[in-house]
């Protein structure tokens, strides 16, 4: 097998963090004995046979206390159920330290086709409705078969099962609620992927170049086909530099990156049996640039009408999660829409990806400080209470939790609501005007032009380095962008009273371009006053005075403005509607601050560079296709905000 990679331990470290997000901190270590899990749990590893005969490697930690029965809490993961060996123990198990100390039967399982589990792995395996044969399997049937085995074979279980997971494991936690086993009583999908055309690898059709290095994690085939393997067989591409911006700029068109994914396999059994895939994940990305049947089949959001009402769900996400924001919000909303009789709640805090699973004391995203012990509060007062109620019967018939437990990232405080968005929301339009104004009333229509230079794209941060996936940019200071000529800035006067946004944001742009292709990026920013205090963790070169906090941002690849499945070019110099949905926020712009909107056309290398001339497939564009163009934003463009009075 030939791989164009430099192998590194970094991949294993990343996979284990993403899989469990339960890294034991020094603070936790002081609470726990060094070998707490080994001292209080027995461990066994089993191969559970699925209905088609494939076996899935499953690790079971059972409390040594057998004086009472315990519920089962399970995580299914593509990132490995390590450490392997019945004499090897994790330092911490379960969703949080409280549940580990209370006593749950904690189960980890390698999903089909990964690590020590048999079978073929498919990235976001398509759901199969109305299965009629044992060879028709998906993640729902695998979860069902696993639970069936566990409740009938694991000693001392109380017959109740819960699912949880963060990121990809969160996706499996959602999947298990579809056609769910009767013993599954609670599931908490956290930062859960919903659809790869809108999560992780794409945003509204734009390819997230920042995830390029992640492609190997999901797309490298096992060297022995579909047979189990207990060591990492993939690694991150070695870019040979810490300057990702310059690396991708120098690399040129996406097709020049093909050399990073050249496999020489004697065993081609890694090709999916459903005929819906090319060889490997990189090929799927480049051969399916539109929202075609491959992506539509693999999306999970459209199947949430099949979740079962006997499964209580608690969807968890971070307002500043750069990886999976679409997934948890759309998962909550669609379960709410299709399964009104079910217990379905959401928890959103001021976190980046999975940060709620750590106990960090001071809570920061990048440079921005949100408060103390926020993750601890979530674990102690929300997550533990949810699972204890549905799996242990605690709470006298009530969970004591609201429908929506959400953190106002501007006021820096938790709020409880009986619905999301909260009742009392009003839609308010604000218009983009000349002289950098954001106004309540539309002024005389005019066009504001800027040059989008493909040789000098707008960076997504002033602090770009080689990382697996970017995180801190979600709260980065946007002053660097506001001072560029290819970023249009619009802002309100200094606010005379607090303004709370609670819900989604719709940008209704009126634009034109001298070319026939362009991307459009909209950012909503909280401009702090000059007297704002600087927190101690902020980078030395920054101050909170006049800090431009990015509250929400989104991109739309312009070719998909009317349909993600059927792209179309712009007509050069023709005024055109481009509507961009920005995901929900819960943020108060406080008195003395300003609300600012930035509009731009490049966001590099967060997203790949649009050639700005229309080609059928950007993954196959040539160097000659990339052209500098002049774009126009018209002042009858507006943003519609959800304002909580």
Please give a structural write-up.
- This protein is α+β, with helices and mostly antiparallel strands and 645 residues long.
- The chain contains 13 helices and 25 strands.
- It has helices spanning 10-20, 26-31, 36-40, 97-102, 139-153, 168-175, 215-219, 244-251, 281-287, 293-298, 326-338, 374-392, 479-482; strands at 41-49, 55-63, 70-77, 105-110, 157-166, 184-190, 202-203, 206-207, 312-318, 344-349, 362-365, 368-372, 404-408, 413-417, 425-433, 437-439, 447-452, 488-491, 499-513, 519-527, 548-557, 576-589, 594-600, 629-634, 638-644.
- The strands form five sheets. It has a ten-stranded mixed sheet, with helices on both faces. Strands 15, 16, 17, 19, 22, 24 and 25 form a seven-stranded antiparallel sheet that branches. A four-stranded antiparallel sheet has the order 18-23-20-21.
- Strand 3, helix 4 (97-102) and strand 4 (105-110) form a beta-alpha-beta unit.
- The longest helix has 19 residues, at 374-392.
- The radius of gyration is 25 Å and the shape is globular.
- Residues 1-30 and 265-278 have low confidence and may be disordered.
């Amino acid at each position: 097998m030939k791989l164009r990679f430099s192998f590194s331990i970094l991949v294993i470290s990343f996979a284990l963090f993403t899989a469990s997000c339960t890294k034991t901190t020094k603070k936790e270590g002081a609470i726990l004995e060094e070998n707490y899990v080994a001292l209080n749990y027995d461990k066994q590893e089993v191969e559970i046979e699925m209905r088609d005969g494939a076996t899935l490697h499953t690790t079971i930690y059972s409390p040594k206390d057998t004086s009472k029965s315990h519920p089962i809490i399970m995580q299914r993961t593509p990132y490995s159920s390590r450490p392997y060996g019945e004499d090897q123990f994790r330092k911490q198990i379960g969703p949080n330290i409280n549940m580990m100390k209370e006593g749950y039967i904690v189960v980890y399982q390698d999903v089909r086709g990964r690590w020590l589990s048999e079978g073929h792995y498919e990235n976001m395996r398509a759901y199969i409705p109305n299965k009629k044969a044992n060879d028709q399997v998906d993640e729902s049937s695998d979860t069902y078969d696993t639970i069936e085995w566990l409740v009938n074979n694991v000693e001392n279980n109380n017959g109740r099962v819960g699912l949880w997971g963060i990121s990809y494991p969160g996706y499996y936690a959602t999947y298990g609620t579809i056609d769910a086993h009767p013993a599954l009583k609670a599931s908490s999908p956290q930062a859960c992927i919903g659809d790869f055309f809108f999560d992780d690898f794409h945003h509204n059709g734009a390819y997230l170049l920042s995830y390029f290095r992640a492609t190997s994690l999901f797309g490298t085939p096992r060297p022995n086909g579909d047979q189990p393997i207990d060591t990492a067989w993939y690694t991150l591409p070695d870019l040979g530099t810490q300057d990702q911006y310059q690396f991708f700029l120098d690399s040129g068109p996406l097709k020049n990156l093909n050399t990073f994914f050249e496999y020489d396999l004697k065993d081609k059994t890694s090709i999916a049996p459903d005929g819906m895939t090319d060889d490997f994940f990189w090929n799927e990305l480049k051969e399916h640039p539109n929202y075609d049947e491959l992506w539509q089949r693999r999306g999970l959001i459209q199947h949430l009408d099949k979740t079962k009402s006997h499964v209580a769900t608690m969807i968890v996400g971070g307002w500043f999660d750069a990886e999976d924001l679409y997934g948890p919000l759309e998962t909550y909303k669609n379960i709410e829409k299709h399964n009104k009789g079910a217990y379905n709640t959401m928890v959103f805090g001021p976190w980046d990806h999975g940060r709620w699973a750590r106990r960090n004391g001071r809570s920061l995203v990048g440079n921005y400080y949100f408060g103390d012990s926020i993750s601890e509060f979530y674990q102690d007062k929300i997550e533990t209470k949810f699972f204890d109620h549905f799996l242990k019967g605690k709470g006298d018939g009530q969970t004591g939790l609201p429908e929506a437990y959400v953190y106002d990232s501007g006021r820096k405080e938790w709020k409880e609501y009986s619905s999301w968005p909260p009742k009392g929301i009003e839609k308010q339009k604000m218009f983009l005007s000349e002289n950098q104004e954001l106004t309540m009333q539309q002024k005389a229509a005019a066009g504001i032009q800027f040059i989008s230079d493909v040789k000098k794209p707008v960076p997504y941060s002033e602090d770009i380095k080689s990382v697996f996936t970017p995180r801190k940019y979600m709260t980065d200071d946007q002053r660097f962008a506001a001072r560029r000529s290819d970023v249009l800035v619009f802002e309100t006067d200094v606010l005379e009273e607090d303004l709370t946004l609670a819900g989604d944001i719709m940008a209704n742009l009126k634009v034109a371009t001298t070319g026939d292709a362009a991307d459009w990026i909209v950012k909503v920013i909280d401009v702090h006053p000059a007297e704002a205090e600087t927190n101690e963790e902020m980078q030395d070169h920054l101050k909170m005075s006049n800090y431009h906090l990015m509250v929400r941002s989104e991109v739309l690849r312009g070719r998909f403005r009317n349909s993600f499945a059927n792209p179309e070019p712009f007509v050069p110099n023709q005024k055109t509607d481009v509507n961009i949905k920005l995901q929900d926020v819960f943020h108060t712009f406080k008195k003395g601050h300003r609300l600012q909107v930035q509009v731009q056309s490049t966001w590099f290398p967060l997203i790949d560079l649009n050639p700005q001339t229309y080609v059928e497939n950007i993954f196959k564009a040539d160097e000659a296709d990339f052209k500098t163009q002049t774009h126009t934003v018209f002042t009858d463009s507006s943003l519609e905000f959800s304002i909580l009075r």
